[in-house]
Specification:
By secondary structure, the chain is mainly alpha-helical. It has 2 domains: about 160 residues; about 40 residues. The chain contains 7 helices and 2 strands. It has a two-stranded antiparallel ribbon with strand order 1-2. The protein starts with a helix and ends with a helix. The structure holds zinc ion. Zinc ion (ZN) binds next to helix 2.
């Protein structure tokens, strides 16, 4: 118990912690939401296979942006409506962060393949599941009070799992960015030095073709003139 509290003291200020089984959880209300939201979202992405899909549709992006902006307003104490609100803000942050780290990493790994085929798009079912998950996480915050009976060990295990999954997703995203950059450099995209080369060649080629055409027309001209 003390060991975990010590470990999480490096990641969290540990003020305003929920008390479960007579002991404070090792993270604050907001961080409990962050790690629980990341753990639930990571489990959903893995079990549903949604992590293999491409980037989400505009409607999901808009929902995510709205959730993140609201959570940021809560995080900066612009809006502070109490413990349940802090838990909701954490849950939304964890959900959106996990979703974009995993989908972003998977997308960049996909783009780094030798032959890039289109990723399977988000289906209507995926979109409904994502929205239902976001709503379910909000309800989880409301149900946390009655769910305290699950115990200190359970909630600390959820926090530890979420932190480990978030760290794994962050590492995967970092590796994906590095791999994508190295592949992009090899392919000459999107760097201008190599992408400008074909244009120069095209111009030179165009010049060669026009000069060849001019020569040809000059060589064709005499017979035409002599015909008249
Ligand atoms: Zn915290």
């Amino acid at each position: 118990m003390d060991c975990l509290t010590d470990i999480f003291s490096h990641l969290c200020g540990q003020d305003r912690c929920f008390v479960v089984d007579g002991a404070a959880l090792p993270v604050c209300q907001r961080c409990l939401g962050l790690y629980a939201g990341a753990a639930v979202t990571g489990a959903w992405l893995a079990m549903s296979g949604t992590w293999r899909r491409g980037l989400p549709s505009r409607s999901i992006v808009l929902v995510n942006v709205a959730m993140l902006l609201t959570a940021m307003a809560g995080g900066m104490h612009a809006i502070d409506l109490g413990p349940m609100w802090r838990l909701i803000c954490g849950l939304w942050t964890g959900h959106v962060t996990m979703l974009w780290l995993v989908l972003g990493a998977a997308h960049l790994f996909h783009l780094s393949r030798a032959v890039v085929r289109p990723q399977p798009p988000w289906t209507r079912r995926d979109r409904l599941q994502a929205v239902a998950l976001a709503a379910g996480l909000t309800m989880l915050a409301a149900a946390f009070g009655p769910l305290r009976w699950l115990g200190w060990d359970f909630w600390t295990a959820v926090v530890s799992l979420g932190a480990a999954m978030l760290l794994g997703a962050l590492l995967a995203a970092t590796v994906a960015v590095a791999v994508w950059f190295s592949h992009a450099a090899l392919r000459g995209f999107p760097f201008s030095r190599t992408s400008a080369a074909p244009e120069k060649l095209t111009d030179r080629k165009r010049h060669q073709v026009s000069s060849q055409n001019a020569k040809r027309s000059r060589s064709v001209e005499p017979p035409t003139m002599s015909a008249h």
